[in-house]
Amino acid sequence: MSLRLPLQAIGTCQSSTSLNPPPPPLTLLKTPHPPPKSHSDPEKSENSLPTTTRSPNPITQTHLSLVTVLPIPVNPLTLEGEIDLALNHLRSSDPLLTALIDSYKPPAFESQSSPPFLALAKSILYQQLATNAANAIYNRFVSLCGGESEVVPDNVLALNANQLRKIGVSGRKASYIHDLANKYRDGVLSDSSIVEMDDESLLTKLTLVKGIGVWSVHMFMMFSLYKPDVLPVGDLGVRKGVQLLYGLKELPKPLQMEELCDKWKPYRSVGAWYMWRFMEAKGVLTSTEA
């Protein structure tokens, strides 16, 4: 089962109750259980929600009277054995997750991913569209650029709004895609810098792009960069899953989400994946999937 959510969904309406799944990620594994069908990033309407980073690991030096603080390594979820480490941690840190982990096959990832620019452009194109319509527009967009390998900032900037409108891209989305390409051209962003940024920097930099909000960045971090410790506190499916898991009367707000799921660190991405599964099952668990 793939843990990846469709990047095309990045931006479909996070507070919406419609359950249209985000389009398949650029390197999605085949799975009988698609990601949840409700999420959104309504034209950057989310409040700015910083991603919590891991606590540093203090190492006391034997011959020094000071403490050197070193960051805990953050391995991508594609690394061999990382999912097993995540599941063991979640079982021990939150017993309520044990039944969920026993009820679903663990998430799995492919090691290859598409370039960040392509993934982000695709996420913008898929915003607030039904999957079939979004697929058609994306395919025409790729063809206009000359293939997926040619979806690069210079080629995107060479397309004017009228050309994009003819293939079904709205004027607003055209401005978003051009803004993303301009950020690359001006050196504000690059594929290499995005891969190297920490979570907080990613949120800061990517939300500078028109049309990309916090929810979109969380999805990108989880399903394109495979970051292990992302908690999408604004995602409706994850919030519903947490509500069911802890028997809450109301949907948890962002601060409550942070508090309740703090014990899942440093594998909140995997915990969030199980919340989507739990939400889809409406809180009813069956035997382990075949």
From TrEMBL:
GO terms for molecular function: alkylated DNA binding; DNA-3-methyladenine glycosylase activity; DNA-7-methylguanine glycosylase activity. The keyword DNA repair applies. It comes from the Eukaryota. InterPro entries: Alkylbase_DNA_Glycosylase/TA, DNA_glycosylase, HhH-GPD_domain. Residues 47-59 have a biased composition (Polar residues). CDD domains: ENDO3c (cd00056). Keywords: DNA damage, DNA repair. Coiled coil: none annotated. Residues 125-280 form the HhH-GPD domain. GO terms for biological process: base-excision repair, AP site formation; DNA alkylation repair. Residues 20-37 have a biased composition (Pro residues). GO terms for cellular component: nucleus; protein-DNA complex. Residues 1-59 are annotated as: Disordered. Belongs to the alkylbase DNA glycosidase AlkA family. This is HhH-GPD domain-containing protein. It comes from Fagus sylvatica (Beechnut).
